[in-house]
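User: I'll paste a sequence; please echo it back and then give the predicted structure.

Assistant: Echoing your sequence first, then the prediction.
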Amino acid sequence: MWKRALSGLNSDQFDLIFKFCIERCSNGNPWPPELSDVISMLSDKLVDANAFGIPLDEMLRDFNKYLARRCNYHSAEMYPFRHPVQYWIFTDLRQKVYDLRLTEAEVEKQLNKMIRMWSERVQRGEVIPKPTLRLEDKTRPRPAWIDLLENADKRKHKSA
């Protein structure tokens, strides 16, 4: 069973298995891991491996931070993303979250799918565009409520 399971692994994956075994021993567990432990560890490492060097759980945590803190910035382009790909993934995913009312599990699945899609694009040689700040559209008239607020502030300062 072990032979069949390990026959298709490359040297990097064997290195991961050896490190896993050594780590288990250094943590006080003298018994070798079971095959299911090894397969689980390898699958977790392969899911975490992407072209951007950011594991899925950290991407999910960064996405939740983005949702919580995005209102502190004038635009998404001004948000301090760790990697430019996060801008493209997070803005698209945020739109899907609100349009489709995704649950947490669906968000995680969609995020994983988007990471794979962008990883494939990078492997094909595409460059990830950096987010560029858009200019404000000044052709549209200002909302009337802004003028009302400013006039009210001016009246308060005159009377004081």
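The two ends are 85 Å apart (CA to CA). Residues 104-123 form the longest helix (20 residues).
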